[in-house]
Design a protein that fits this description.
Order of helices and strands: HHHHHHHHHHHHH
Number of domains: 1
Helix content: over 70%
Membrane topology: Multi-pass membrane protein
Keywords: Antibiotic resistance, Cell membrane, Cell shape, Cell wall biogenesis/degradation, Hydrolase, Membrane, Peptidoglycan synthesis, Transmembrane, Transmembrane helix
Largest sheet: none
Subcellular location: Cell membrane
GO molecular function: undecaprenyl-diphosphatase activity
Number of helices: 13
Shape: globular
EC number: 3.6.1.27
């Protein structure tokens, strides 16, 4: 892979990860059209996702910092509750337990956990399948069409009012399933999860925040699974430099697109992206038969 190709793919990743048009679908199409064969498998894709993940940390730094603090606080309360449980058994006491969910951020943490569980299961089970179908041009094409349909649904849905306090754990679990399905190339992760949030009655601003923050454990988990095999990969120093440059470009472009997405959701302008996805998906599907 050349430096120019890495930069172009970084731009594609940064734009399509946060705008609801599917980064995996566009990357798959780009690699097929330009015959880019990466011997390192999805390592470069993971690095691009880590780049866009950096953009999420920058935009939502205060929220993420508070979520991390509350996560450790929940863990501390769990340990105290375990001690209370043991003490109650031994001394036959009836001491009360510390509530784990005492504020909105703690509820936010638990919701993200509930969303991450189905995403992790689906992502791990379908890992090999995703890598195979990403090389078949018609798959991202059809999935982009599905994304377009989902965006039309999001555009027509009434505004919700749910914030963490009102969101149910069932809502979070279903949204996690949607995120897991969105590992298919062409199914937009942000478009799918934001649509699921809006259908579940989320406040529009919180829907965007939840969609992007819930992606953090999923992306980090995927990175860990891929990077554990890095010692067996034949990566040259020049390729590493190109990969890093691509990731940095993805982070810079991604930051701009997160800000753009906040405006898109607030003004409900999904239909323009829906039309684009339908056209791109149709062209990719037709291209599959032409190339074949």
């Amino acid at each position: 892979m050349s430096l120019l190709q890495a930069i172009l793919m970084g731009i594609i990743q940064g734009i399509t990860e946060f705008l609801p048009v599917s980064s995996s679908g566009h990357l798959a199409i780009f690699k097929e059209l330009f015959q880019i064969d990466l011997e390192t498998g999805i390592l470069f894709d993971i690095m691009l996702h880590l780049g866009t993940l950096l953009a999420v940390f920058i935009v939502y730094f205060k929220d993420i910092k508070r979520l991390v603090i509350e996560s450790f606080a929940i863990l501390y309360d769990c340990i105290l509750n375990l001690k209370i449980f043991i003490s109650n058994i031994i001394h036959k006491n009836n001491e009360g337990y510390r509530p784990l969910v005492r504020n909105a951020y703690r509820k936010f943490v638990i919701l993200v956990i509930f969303s991450t569980i189905p995403t992790a299961i689906i992502g791990y089970a379908a890992k090999d399948l995703i890598e195979v179908v990403s090389k078949i041009l018609i798959v991202p094409g059809v999935c982009l069409i599905i994304t377009g349909i989902l965006l039309f649904i999001a555009d027509k849905y009434n505004d919700g009012t749910k914030t963490p306090k009102q969101v149910s754990y069932n809502n979070a679990f279903i949204i996690g399933i949607c995120q897991g399905i969105a590992t298919l190339p062409g199914i937009s992760r942000s478009g799918t999860t934001i649509t699921a949030c809006l259908v579940s009655g989320f406040d529009k601003k919180f829907a965007v925040k939840y969609s992007f923050i819930m992606s953090i454990p999923a992306i980090l988990g995927a990175a860990v699974l891929e990077l554990k095999d890095i010692t067996t990969m034949n990566v040259t120093p020049s390729e590493i430099i190109n990969y890093v440059v691509g990731a940095v470009v993805a982070a810079l472009v991604g930051y701009i697109c997160i800000k753009t997405m906040l405006v898109v959701v607030r003004r409900k302008k999904f239909k323009f992206f829906a039309i684009y996805c339908l056209l791109a998906g149709t062209l990719a599907s037709v291209g599959y038969f032409v190339i074949s």
